Amino acid sequence: MNPVFNESFIFNVPYENIRKTSLSISVMDYDRMGRNELIGQVILGSKSGPMEVKHWNEMFAKSRQPVAQWHILKDFS
Q: What pTM was computed for the model?
């Protein structure tokens, strides 16, 4: 009941596409029986909320280095 999400991801995005690119992360509740339910989402990109934009910009400022950041999951439905 207390998951830890400590994953690393690497994406190659052409520089000319950076401004129109965003990363959407969805966290799902896995059930063996019944439906898997959406717990929440976070969207990282140049047009996200202030904390997400800060993380997005830090990732580009520290290219090829890990940039860890906690995010609050939101309900976009």
A: 0.74
What is the DSSP annotation of 1-66? --------------GGGGGG-EEEEEEEE--SSS--EEEEEEEEETTS-HHHHHHHHHHHHTTTS-
Integer Cα distance of 35 and 26 in angstroms: 15
Tokens encoding 6: 């400590």
**In the prediction, which pLDDT does 1 show?**
66
Kindly state the tokens that stand for 13. 């995005």
Structure-token match 């009941």, residue found: 1
pLDDT, one tens digit per residue, over 40-49 is 999 998 889 9
15-21: which pairs have CB atoms within 8 A and are 24 or more residues apart?
A: 18/46, 18/60, 19/46, 21/45
